[in-house]
Amino acid sequence: MNEILHLAAExxxxxANSNLPQEVFDSLLVNFRSFTKLLNASDIQIVEGAxxxxxxxxxxxxxxxxxxxDLLNISNNQIEEILPAFKLEKANIAKNLLKSLYWAxxxxxxxxxLSNDNALELSKIAENYLQVEDKSLANTAREVIKICKN
Length: 150
Prior knowledge:
Largest sheet: none
Helix content: 55-70%
Strand content: under 5%
Shape: globular
Order of helices and strands: HHHHHHHH
Number of helices: 8
């Protein structure tokens, strides 16, 4: 699925007038919620793959000329499916999920609003990544903490 999104993105970059990338995006987006459910799998490779695919959908939605779809959102209820994946303590998974959550929290039209408990828990999780060598992960963690504390 990730590869299909990348190919559609490449097509959109080469031919801005093509409707095919939007059609591909819309047809695949019904699977977005399934990836949050896969984050609870006991196999790290499955969790990592699910986190990569969530982020791929989000990146694709940011391509100029792609219309946002209401199916691409992360609800407060889904946070409870996402947060346990951080216990695996894999930097790649944490980076993908923090970036996905940051996007959901800052979405202009319909941002994710966390419950107080989920905001506190996510903030505590993000604090664990402030001192990592990966600057992108540390910066994303810092931004997520700011949002959670407001």
